[in-house]
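Here is one such protein, fold included:

. . .
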Amino acid sequence: MRVLPVGTDALLVEVSSGDQAQALHAELLRRRAAGSLRVREIVPAARTVLLDGLADPAGLA
């Protein structure tokens, strides 16, 4: 897993497979729904998940 900063309030999480990206996306959605993750958007792709609208991206990475 590799975590890259994107601008001032986002992170791009890169994983090694599409299955891992789907699992990460599902877990992040669950955490946001539970209130433990404050993020505006969670955007999945083939092997990455973008978290946009984070108050403290460095604290999450």
User: Anything to note?
Assistant: The chain has a mean pLDDT of 96. The first helix runs from residue 18 to 34. The chain has two helices and four strands. The first strand starts at residue 2 and ends at 6.
